[in-house]
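In line with agreed milestones, work has continued on tokenised descriptions of protein folds. One protein thus recorded appears below exactly as we store it:

>
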Amino acid sequence: MNWTRSRLNNLFFIIGVAACVVMLFTFDVSFVELWDHLCTAGYWLIPILGVWILIYGINAASWWCVIKGVDPEARLSKWKIFKWTVSGYALNYATPVGGLGGEPYRIMELSQEVGKQQATSSVVLYAMMHIFAHFWFWFTSIFLYLILAAAGDLPLNGAITFVLGFIALLFFAAFYLFSKGYKNGIVVNVLKWIGKIPGLKRWSARTLERHDEALHNVDKQIAALFSQDKKAFYSSLLLEYVSRWAQSLEVLFMLLLFGVDNGGGIDGIMLTYLHSVLIVALTTFFANLIGFLPMQIGVQEGGFVLSIAALGLSAALGIFVSIICRVREIVWIFIGIMLMKLPEKE
């Protein structure tokens, strides 16, 4: 088992390193332009990179709530959870189809501590929670926009109202599907759905047949967390939701760097922060629409430019924000990949 785990760890490590190299040599701008942007950012790079220690810490705490909900007897060091969280997100960023590397890696590592079924349930539940919190973040951002529009800070017309209303209806549909998944489990249904994809029907049927009991047990554990341990469920959801607001600090730092502070003072900086929340909401919404691309290449940049322009700011600022965010991603991907090779403290 340890030998197999070591081989898989090395495979994930190689994939991550290769992805970092490819991303560096296929960057959207020349190295001269990149260096100019980095020089412009200057010392602001420290809080821009550093705030992700807080964000990943919140993500790790959210995952820990899920693990304890699934297995109350679990005894894990906070360092391990944080390490696996950062490395898992690094693999998700670096590989196509956002969970192709990160979720299997987390299951592999956590299985050594709590058993395979509990590890699978915890990772699947956390992945669902991560996505569920995204929907809540996007949904509440609609009301944030309406509040700022009512205050005369942002435009609001018939077209914008229609779009916001349509998106809200989509989110209600998503909330319904999530509630069904949390109440009844989701793994078996997803595998059955995969079986409808041409070429995967036989694989899906074989997987369901071979692992029928284990898969149903995973679904039972997923449903049990929602029905029996609501404290763990809502604590995890709240932490994931808060992490989105913490992520908005990154954009705030870059806006302040360019002197965008809405007049300065506490009120001006707070308004700029709320604008940052809307920028992150719109950008992540676009990026997750096309999540099969590594690091959502091109989509994230377009999302930043569009969202920043929608708030009346320059497209050049949007390009700067997208490039610095891309640099931050590469740095944290590298950190996450390197953490995979560090010894695990108890």
